[in-house]
Amino acid sequence: MSQIEQLSSAKGKPMILHEGYIYTVERTTTTKSIFRCKNRDCKARCHTNSSMDAFVSQPTPHCHAPQPDRVPAIQLKNEIKARAATTDESTSTIIHSVLRTYPLSAAGQLPKNESLMLMIRRQRTTETVDADGRLPEKLRKTYRDEDFILHEDKKLIIFTTKTNLSILKQNKHWFADGTFKVCPDDYYQLFTLHAMMANAIIPLVYGLLIGKSAEDYNLFFKKVLEQDNFQPESIMTDFETGTIKSVKDKLPNILHKGTF
């Protein structure tokens, strides 16, 4: 049987390395694991034992050459994650240490320093859900011990407090914004409602949405508006089609302003 090196994908799923080819797990059974080539244009596959440390059937032919230069970057990410999870070393210490052994021949595959730092932060702040798929208790309360979860299901999570909703109610002019860059993998965007407080616009309600359709925004606004008798006079949003339709549906009698 041929030697196998075990790796993990960015999402923690099993990968194996053999003779310069990288394979990702396709499915597992009680007795073996089936892997396919990481190159999705290639149909090569192989079967390993359940421990993923030996082949039970050799890899089928690939349609491309090996890509050994991609391996060091994956190994580097694996080592960074392991050290972030098991040590108290600083972010800079971990990065500098693992880069010492990184081969110059694979410099073109080296992730940016910012990406490596973010990887460490995410590894150290990962929270698991409970048996019912709910967020852990430490994320359900604010530092002032206020309830922070307004709504939670697979389509939408809304974070806010009674204090925030009270401030929102007092304000007649609302601002809404969505970002797609800072969002957990299971959701599509972070959508926020803002209002004025002490001469500053502050976020008061945070929503994790699975999409950007009018239905997604409708559910968000519905859950917020049913908490109190809100009577805003205006709302400012971007020109996202789904947002515009939802505001007209859920807040039909207020002034809607658009902004880039």
From TrEMBL:
A single MF term (Gene Ontology): zinc ion binding
MULE transposase domain residues: 174-257
Boundaries of every FLYWCH-type domain copy: 7-64
Keyword line: Metal-binding, Zinc, Zinc-finger
Coiled coil: none
PANTHER family assigned to the protein according to its UniProt record, in alphabetical order: MULE TRANSPOSASE DOMAIN-CONTAINING PROTEIN, PUTATIVE-RELATED
Protein name (Swiss-Prot/TrEMBL): MULE transposase domain-containing protein
Species per Swiss-Prot/TrEMBL record: Rotaria magnacalcarata
